[in-house]
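hey so i finally got around to running both of the ones u sent me last week. sorry it took forever, my laptop kept dying halfway thru and i had to restart like 3 times lol. anyway pasting them below in the order u listed, first the sequence line then the structure token line for each. didnt double check formatting much so if smth looks off just lmk and ill redo it

first one:
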Amino acid sequence: PQFKTINLNEMIQSCLQSFELELKNKNIYSEVNLVPGNVKGDEIGLRQVITNLLKNAIQYDRGGWIRITGEKVKNKYRVTLTNQGQPIPSEKVNRIFDRFYRVDPSRHRDTGGSGLGLAIAKEIVRQHGGEIGLHSNGHDHSFWFTIPMRH
């Protein structure tokens, strides 16, 4: 991958715009709060991470809202995407980034997704020297990832 300086908050805004119609059609309100931040990364890869997280949030939405925050934490840029979604039992939270893993095993390809989106996101974030994770209280889910800031 080609690593260059990327304005992550601008990239998030542009990814979100590509989902504008879908969000509107599903009556999902988005709240965005991003501080400016540059990271060194692969543009295609980072777009893929943001897109995969947005797709999941929209697909499993139960609350009609998505909150996206971008902030500087120490020497990293941290992106958090929070929404109310399909319940995720606490024992499954750690497996959610595994390849082909599904919270609901009865879902398969024709009901959407290959079960690879989060695994791919995890791999891309790792290649950037970052971390990815999920905080969940069962219904409200905050998917987050960090990418080291450009120095």
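and the second one:
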Amino acid sequence: MPVLIDGHNLIGQIPTIDIAAPDDEAQLVLLLRRYAARRRERKVVVVFDGGVYGHPGNLNGYGVETYFARSPADADAELIRRIRAVKRRGEWLVVSSDRAVVGEAQARGIAVISSQEFARRLAALDQPRASAREKIGERPLSAAEVEEWMRFFGIDEE
């Protein structure tokens, strides 16, 4: 599912990224690249407001496309313009907590997730994955169960 992200809105929800840092956008893009790789997302578009206009395109790649607006107002307008241009509405996900952006996406039938919730998903990238045994609730066999299986298969303990 392609994802359209309100960049600085999301950065404000990620405790490991300081929005005042000069490389806050790059830090987010690195997280989004990991997300795209793990989720096998082919397209993640992130729009930044108040960033460096005309920022070098070296942040693009690995499934992530970045766009830098001139001002916060331009970023919202760019997000809304992109939402209006979406052809396959059921395939996209918009990440924002901005009322105007969320309202436009919802009015067009595009799925929306808050920046807070998406930040939790990104944080989960660093959580250890449960093993197959943990997922199905399997427990180790007891000594009695091992003995029973050995008898069943005709295996001598010695």
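quick thing i noticed on the 2nd:
The mean pLDDT is 85.
anyway thats it, ttyl
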